[in-house]
Structures are given as structure tokens and as C-alpha cells.
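Researcher: I'm preparing a figure for a lab meeting and need a structural model of a single chain. I don't have an experimental structure, so a prediction will have to do for now. The sequence is pasted below. Please return the structure as C-alpha cells so I can convert it later.
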Amino acid sequence: MPKYSSSRDLQDGIDVRPQFSRDGAVVDIPRRRMAEQSVDPETAYNVIVDELMLDGHARLNVATFGTTWMEPQAEKLMAEAADKNLVDRDEYPQTAQLEDRCLDIIADFWNAPEPDNPIGCSTIGSSEGCMLAGMALKWRWRDRMKEAGKPTDRPNLVVGANVQVCWHKFCRYWDVEPKEVPIRKGETTMHPEDVAAACDENTIGVIGILGSTFDGAYEDIAGMAKELDRLEIEKGIYVPIHVDAASGGLFAPFVDPELVWDFRLERVQSINASGHKYGLVYPGVGWVLWRNEEARPEDLVFRVDYLGGDHPTMSLNFTKPGSGVVAQYYQFVRLGYDGFKRVHQHSRDIAQMMAQAIGDMEEFELIADASDLPVIAFCFNGANTKSGKPRKDSYAANVQYTLNDVADWMKQGGWAVPAYHFCADREELEIIRIVVRNAFSRDLAEMFLMELGRAVGRCDGTGEDPGRAFRH
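Model: Understood. Here is the structure written out cell by cell.
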């Protein structure tokens, strides 16, 4: 029997079922080349739908922070706006107006100094927002150094070892040295004192994270600002903060309004967020705002007139779909502040219920209990130690399987569950992370916990026991 090692080993043509070809005609669709002839639109649609059946179910993907459910009305609006190019503000002035309104709304709950005149833009996602904010930090640092008559050839950016990969991309693409602050053993985020200690006169800025990719934890942005204030007083070194609020920026203002992390801190010069995470929009939209005009250097803004009119633009790409912005405005109008609060609080409640159930299982130990973002992270019981070695006689010290084995069994039940090693400096710690999002109901949570019980039973050889996650 032949073995298929990859999709390239499959037959050259895509098989088309007889029901999908008009009048029984033979349809030849090459797999990796363009066909000579056209096919009926329904035929093309059905062929691709059949292929997409092999994708996992998005709602059962607890690995992603991205939105996987929207109301039909929002989906309809996105489809109707799919052909609108946001950069063409003359042709689509009302879509541009919706972008401006979204910026006003976000600036308001991020406590911008002038929320009615926000300095910012939409982006394709949070990574583009990070790139733009990082460039602004570098440009401002360079201007300060030139004014002081100092060299500008060795800029660095202070980040935690837990930082998202987009910041490593920024440093490589824009020739900036990344200065990684180690994560202390037994901890998951940077300490403010360590942040200030890593800074020098070549530091263009510090990246604080509101909602870590690894475990959903908020970093102490206010604590960082305080230590950087102290650094400036004692050594005369000014270092601004950019808050990477990709996940928390459209979550914390609604469920943690008392948390001070945003433009209420003078040290915070810019913030980015993903609309397609807890902004409740499908992938493809993000946001970045600056404190004021000074924080965003004017020479990073370009003016174009060849689409009609004279419009400023600051982005890494030119063409940008308007559908994500339209959907973001729909969510702001549809839900309002109270609606966002109810949706996000429900996600946190579900996540904390799951965290309690998992924490009560003898096999596991919680790393994150959804106190910040609705994210649960856990390891084998006894694995989370400052030494990096499992506690003596703990479950982790004697276990004969891995968390990857658990994740593989969960996948057999339809769940996409990430198992991975923690960030640099804590790479010995293997964890599983679960992200709870809008439309993840209590019923789904209980189904997940039952599947987790089955997976553990298959791994440890004790037999399937879906109820083990519910015995408290």
C-alpha cells in the first residue's frame, strides 16, 4: 500500500464529484497549476468547501486569542465592506469616518490627554501597530541623541523574555538591539526594578505587556513607570514606555477599570491593541495610538494625493481593507460599554471556573488562574519551582508522559490545545494554555474538562475518566 508523506504526493488533479460538474461534464482542476478552462462557480465553491472540511473547528481552538465568532449582522457588514480600500478616503469617506470614530472611542477609554483629537490609526493587526510604535520610539530617541550631540548607531529596546515575537522582528528589521530582561524563577512577568536596571542612554523605550502571550498576565506598567521616573531623576536618562496591549487593551478597560496602565501614566507614550482579539472582531484589524503629536514624529507620516484629495498615511502597507474597521464600529455600537463588560466578565467567569476545576486535579498545578486575561495556564503538579527542577516526590517528578501527549489526545476529541515550553529563562517549564473568548459557553467549558479527564486517563493508563476534572 502506498504511503503519502505530504500533500505533494497526492494525485495531480483535484477530484470533482459528479454532482458538482454541470451536465456530467468532466472537470479537470490541477492541484498546483492554473487550469486551462474556467469552471462553474458552484463547482469551484464546493471543491474548496470540501478541502476546508479538514480544518479544525475554530470555536474549539483554545490556542488562539483571535475572535472565532461574530453575530450574523456583523458578518454581513464585513461582507458588504470587503471591497472597500480604507486608504482611499475620498472614495470611501464614511468608512474613513467610522475609523475616526473608533479612534475617538478607544482614546477615551485609554484615557488619552485629548480623546477628541486622537493621534493614531487602524492597522492590519497588532503586530503592525507594534512596528509603527517602535519606529516612533526609535525616531524620537534619535532626535534626542542628535540634539545632545551623541552617536545614534547603537539603539536598544528593553523587553521581557516573555515578549511576543513581533518585537524580535521589529528589532531585526529596524536594526535595534533587543535587551531581554530575564524572568525570575517562579515568576512569569518582568519586575519593574529589573526593567530600569537594563536601561541606558541608548534605550529607545521599554515594552510593557498588558496580557502576556504565554499566560495572559498583566505586567506592572505603573511599577515600571515609577522605576523609570526614578532612573531619570538619579541618572538623567529619559526612557518612554510603549504598552503592548494586543490582548488586554480592549479587555482591561471594561473589567479592570481601576487598573492604571494607560495614558494616565505620563511615561506611557503609545499603546497598541488587536481589534481581532478581545475587540471581538474577526482577524484583520488592530489599533495604535500615541499620547500626542510629539510622540509620533511627523516625518513618519506620508501624504498622498493620487487617490484624490491630499491625505496623511502612516502604515507599513498601502492597501488596507475597511471591513475590519466597520466590524469594530459595529461592536462598539452594538454592545456599548456595558455590553463589552458583560461579554468579557462572562469569559473571565468561565475561565476561572475552569481554572478551579483544573487546579483541583491531582495531576496539575496552575500557573495562571484567569485573574487577568481569561487565560488558564497549568503544568504538571510540582513542576513550577524556582530551581527549575520538579519538587521531590511530586507528580511532575514521576510522570511518564508529557503535556504534549495530553494535547495530542485532546486533538482527537476536536480540541486545539497548545502545549509548549515557557519563555526564555524558564524554558524548563512545560505548560498548557487555554484561552477563553466570546461565545465559549459554560457547556463548552464542561465538555473541555471532560475531554481533559479522558486524555489524562489515556496518558497515564488508568483508563478514561471524564469526571476527574469535576471531583473537587
